[in-house]
Design a protein that fits this description.
The complex is a heterodimer.
Chain A: E1 14-16, H1 17-20, E2 25-27, E3 33-36, E4 39-44, E5 50-57, H2 59-64, H3 68-81, E6 89-92, E7 96-98, E8 102-105, H4 116-124
Parallel strand pairs in A: 2-8
Antiparallel strand pairs in A: 2-3, 4-5, 5-6, 7-8
Chain B: E1 15-18, E2 26-28, E3 34-46, E4 49-57, H1 58-65, H2 69-78, E5 89-91, E6 95-96, E7 104-105, H3 116-122
Antiparallel strand pairs in B: 2-3, 3-4, 4-5, 6-7
The chains are: A alpha+beta, B alpha+beta.
Chain lengths: ~130, ~120
């Protein structure tokens, strides 16, 4: 529930992006673990300010940090065979409600591609296990 | 080869920067001297928007990232780390990302003042 989110931070609050955001576990409004933060996108405004606009989740983006070529290969493979079609899912930073050990996001991950692999595994593997659900 | 920082599909929109791809990049000053490697990026909430304000380089940035600045700096001292190895806090406005693959300082490295570890040891 959105009501569970902590109070919004005050003006002037500082945020360490690598320590508190990057690679942190995302948790949605239903307390469901929804993947890791693989990327942070900022926008360079006309006044010279660099404003954080979104976080990203997706294997290609995580791999591009190490090797853009391998990241592009993974994206291409994903488009052909992947459950998420190689998509890197972008979440507006305005939806980030808290950072730290977890990154709390104000959305329902089940309604997004964030949990596509979990859904695929549930439908194609777990459901076929005798005694499952 | 490192990933480009800018997103290719955003040419007609404001320039996008992938901040995670800045981590680990070496900063040079205008004279080509090495300043340090970006370990951490700090943002500040300004009128509802998170604005990048500075980057941290060197061990001080890494220790900050690991939430162990105090004990980490002490351990580095015990191990004989030089004060100059502390790293720098560089204001975003002092950083030139004209070539995002090679971030450069807009000012000489000397203008940054002593490394952050040395400042904190002096109690600045």
């Amino acid at each position: 529930m959105a009501d569970d989110f902590p109070e919004p931070p005050e003006n002037g609050t500082r945020l360490r992006l690598v320590r508190d955001v990057l690679d942190s576990q995302m948790v949605d409004r239903k307390q469901c673990q929804s993947g890791k933060v693989d990327g942070i996108v900022a926008e360079l405004r006309d006044d010279g300010r660099l404003v954080i606009t979104a976080i990203e989740n997706g294997l290609p983006e995580a791999v591009r940090r190490v090797s853009p070529r391998v990241g592009d290969w993974i994206a291409a493979l994903g488009r052909r065979w992947g459950v998420r079609k190689g998509e890197v899912y972008r979440i507006p930073f305005a939806r980030v409600r808290n950072t730290g050990i977890d990154v709390r996001i104000d959305l329902d991950a089940a309604a997004t591609p964030l949990l596509a692999w979990e859904r695929w595994l549930r439908e194609h593997v777990v459901r076929r296990i005798p005694g499952a659900g | 080869m490192r990933a480009p920082l800018k997103s290719a599909e955003t040419r007609d929109r404001p320039l996008e920067v992938h901040l995670e791809r800045l981590i680990g990049r070496r900063i040079h000053d205008p004279e080509g001297r090495k300043v340090g490697v970006i370990e951490e990026i700090e943002a500040e909430l300004q009128d509802g928007e998170w604005v990048v304000t500075k980057v941290l380089t060197g061990p001080i940035g890494m220790l900050t990232r690991l939430s162990s600045l105090g004990i980490g700096a002490w351990l580095l001292g015990l191990l004989g780390a030089r004060k100059s190895a502390g790293g720098h806090e560089i204001a975003w406005r002092d950083l030139d990302l004209g070539d995002p693959m090679r971030p450069r300082l807009r000012c000489p490295a000397d203008a940054l003042g002593p490394p952050a570890a040395a400042r904190s040891k002096r109690g600045d």
